Every structure is written in structure tokens, then in C-alpha cells.
Dipeptidase (Paenibacillus violae), 313 residues
Amino acid sequence: MKIMDGHCDALTKLYVNPKLDFEKEDQELDVSYPRLKHAGVKVQCFAIYLSDSIQQPTFDHILQMVDIFHRKIVSHSGIRFIQNVQDWHEVEAGDQIGAILTLEGVDALAGNLTHLRILYHLGVRSIGLTWNYANWAADGVMEPRKGGFTRKGKLMLRELETMGIIADVSHLSTAAFWELVEGYNKPFIASHSNAQKICPHPRNLSDDQIKAIIQCQGQIGLTFVPYFVDSVNLAVSIPGLLKHIDHVCSLGGERQIGFGSDFDGIEQWIKGLRHAGQYENLIEALCKNYNETQVEAFLFGNWRNFMLTNLPK
Ligand SMILES: [Zn+2]
């Protein structure tokens, strides 16, 4: 079965530790070529995320990560960079794994919309507006003042819409989420978030937020971060994740469900989902609970529909 994963932080690990090898099965890398291949991951999103350890993130840091993406990931003969619908179709028809480049947090763009456009030229196709805290554009969900977008942030949103870069609301504050719903006229995604109703964490989506994503025909990447799956049990297992699927379905979002693992961005894992090579455990659990059409849609088909509609032609 084909799989698409809407979010991982392997690039950050490769940036922090240049010795890690994407081409080999490396215990320290949840997402590596052998693991993706073993699991049947057909399309993987790679986020440029400048970790907290970088005191003053600059555009140069972003460029260094774009360089790593090219040298260490896309350079592999089994990987193909997806920048448009045509690339997607070619990946689907062939043996290669597709890689989509995304940005998590616009901090390092420092309000410069030229930098934003350069990222588009470099192939970045989705942008998460914030990480957990405030930046020049908007507040993140853990920022105590709970603000929305700045004036410059709203200009950036308009630019994303014009260029056709997909807006990603995972990590965004609630106020900014609703401003985006008002001011952004294209479908948007939450690449790695779960349902608050099942696990009341601020990083998860409220029912109203899930409904807004369904309304705009966006996409939700349900995530494997244990404390976003279950707030009660310490040992989180795959059935806990399925509760989020059932809940989003109950709100009418069956066609909006995908996965966004957050592999390589986490230090705790769901039992049975320790790394990308273990997707087979998720597939097995899905097949016990849903019919084949649904399982295929959750793993790949829903993301596929979204991307074919929202990637540049
Ligand atoms: Zn994240």
C-alpha cells in the first residue's frame, strides 16, 4: 500500500549532525531511505525547521538546509523532488519516492517577502507560519499573549495565496488560525496535529477548527507524537491514534484524513511506530478497523487528492 507522510524533521537532524546517513538504516534517523522503501512510503514531506539551538535564525540557515535537502536526500537515485503535479504523476508511475520540501516557521524570513518568493523558486511548496512561539508574522500556539497575525504576517499570507504555497496551521495560535480562515482563500492544511476532543493538548485541533479544514477541503496529517495522541496513558499505542481517525470521521472529515508523523522531531514514540520502517503496524491496525478504500485514502489517497489540486500545475 502506498503511503504519504506530511511532516518529518529529518533535515534538522541532518543539519545538526552531518555524520548521519540518510542512505543507510541509521538508528538515529527515523526517516531514512531504507526505512521509507521498506514501509512503502511513496511521498515524504521534509520540513526545514531551524531548531531552538540556533539563536538567531537567518535566511542563510534556511539555504543551508535546502542545500542538505539536495545533497543528502534528492541526490539519492531512488528519490525524486516533487515541485508540481507533473512530478507527482511521474513519481506515482515509477519506482522512486517523492520528496516535498516544506518550511516550519517563517522566523528566518524576517518579514522579507522576496525571501519568501525565493523559497518558492527553490521548490518549497508548503509553509507552516509559526513554530510554538511568536515570530514577526504571527503568534504560535504556546505564546502566552495568544495573539493573531501581524500586519506583515497578513501580507505574507496574501503572498502565499498568490504564489500557490500551501499554508500549514500546525503550531499556529487559535486567534491566528481564525484570521487565516477569514483572510486566506485557498485550502490549507494542518500537517501534524490531532483532535483536541480525544487528547486535549493545545497543539491539537478543536472540533470547530477541524470543521473549518473540512469546509475548505484542506487536509489534516494525524501525528504520531504520543502526548498529542493520548493525555492519560503513558504507553501510547496505535489504537489510541485510531480514535482520532474515528473522531475526524464523525465530524465529516473522512476525506481530509492523512498522516504527518513528526518522525525525527520527537523523542518519544507510539508503541509500534518507532520509525518510518514500521508503517506496516499502522496498516495492519487500519485494515482491522476500516475497509480497503478507506485505508488507502487515509494512507495516501486523501493527500494525493489534495496535492493534485493544490500543487502548481
Ligand atoms: Zn512541528
